[in-house]
Every structure is written in structure tokens, then in C-alpha cells.
Amino acid sequence: MTTAHPHFTGARPLTVLTHAALLTGRLLRSLRRMPTFLVIGLVQPVIWLLLFGQLFSSVVDLPGFTHAGGGFLQFLTPGVVMMTALFASAWAGTTYLQDIDRGVMDRMLTSPASRGAMVLATMTYQAIQTLIQSLVIVAIALAAGARFPGGAAGVGITLLAAVLLTLTFSALSNAVALLTRQQATLIAISQFTTLPLMFLSSAVMDLGLAPGWVGGVADYNPMEWAVVAARDAMGTHTDWTTVWGHLGLLAAAALVMGLLSTRAFRTYRKQA
């Protein structure tokens, strides 16, 4: 068994950030060489926007739909942005699994790079992908006729909410990868969590049309926190108390999951 490098503990913040920047650059170089995954990740969101956005456009006329202003495409866009962030970040642990299989992970753990920097790098990498994809989705929605009264500020809040959601679930995915070391297990857990989280939120449908218990569950759903913050910020009458409150919940969740992911390295080393 390899021994941990003494710099793991007590690493200075500047050192951690420097290491995280270098490790993020490594991941971004890989993305630049193979941008296919970034493009493929946009296929499903485009289908949701252009196909389902038109197919269910009359849903806004149903009694109980409380977000009728602006049409269904305006309602759907924040949900699609968060769906894309959620699905992509749930697979973030794949990067760790590849590093484990290639022996890269063990070499990195004996290097001066801290565990916190390694976690921060993967989370930053996922956040950058989310920013690119979210901007493309908003641009497509605008081209398709959606209008967002919240303007640039609303779009900025949407991007922030998407990034916080990404940080939360990419950290969770990394922790699962380190604890299980199995691609099949990561896939199963991702599928088991992402779809329920999506449908137990207002991402694609107004909760006013859903059973009451769905709304109760949605109150504790990070996906719903992100959707509500984005949709409210992009709407006509923004309740900033609601927006910042939900962003605060997302930030707290991201911090907790980041700490969990960092702690997961301890279990990984014990099993090595």
C-alpha cells in the first residue's frame, strides 16, 4: 500500500487553489481533445425544448397552471437547464473511475496535491461544462421564441443555480465512485436518483397540476431549489427573497457534498 504525502494535511489555501487549477487544466485539455461528450449532452435538452416545448404548449391553458405568463417554452427552459446540469453531474464520478483503473488515482494521492484540490478540480470542470451547455440552451430557447423578462440578471441567476446544482451532484457522484469503485454501481445509483429528482420537481410541469404530496417532497429536492430560483429570476415579478433563499440551500448542499467527497478518499485509501 502506498503512503500518503505529508502535504495532504494542513495545505495552505493558495496551494490548494493552485493545485486545483492545474488539475482542472488537465481535465479541460481532455475535453478539448474530445468535445463529443459536451455536444452529445445537448441533444436531449434540444429535443425537450424544440419538441416537447411545442407539443405541450397548450398546457399553460389548463386550470391550476400557475406560470402561464410567457408561454410554456419560457416555463420549460429553466427546467431543461437544470435537467442537463443534473444528468451530466451525476456521471462526474466516471472520471475518478477511469483514473482508478489506469492507476492515476494512486499516483495522485502520493503527490503533493491535496484531496481537496482533487475534488475541487473535478467540480470546477463539471461546472465549466454546465456553463457552456446552459448558455447554449438559453440561446436556443431565445431563438425558438422564448422571452425572459428577468433579462441578463435572470440568466445570470439561472447559470449560478445550475452551477451550484452541478457542484452538489458532481461531488456526490465522485464520493460514490470512490466508495464503490464500480461503474455499474455508479450508473445504477445515478439512474435511481436523477429521474425521481427530475419528476419530483417543477422542471417540466407546474406542481399546481401534480398531487399534493409531490409538492411536499419537492420542498426538499435540490433540483426544485434550482428550478425555482432560476424560473423566478427569469420571470416578470422576481421575489428575490425566494431566489436567494433557494440559492443558499443549494450552496449549503454543495458544501456538504464537497466535504463528503473529500472524506471519501479516506475510505478509498483504506480499501487500497
Automatic annotation (TrEMBL):
Keywords: Antibiotic resistance, Cell membrane, Membrane, Transmembrane, Transmembrane helix, Transport. Its main location: membrane. It is a multi-pass membrane protein. Belongs to the ABC-2 integral membrane protein family. Pfam families: ABC2_membrane. It comes from Streptomyces oryzae. It comes from the Bacteria. This is Transport permease protein. Residues 36-268 form the ABC transmembrane type-2 domain. It is found in: Cell membrane; Membrane. PANTHER family: NODULATION PROTEIN J. InterPro entries: ABC2_TM (IPR013525), ABC2_TM_bact-type (IPR047817), ABC_2_transport (IPR000412), Nod_factor_ABC_transporter (IPR051784). The chain crosses the membrane at residues 36-56, 76-97, 118-144, 150-172, 184-205, 243-260.
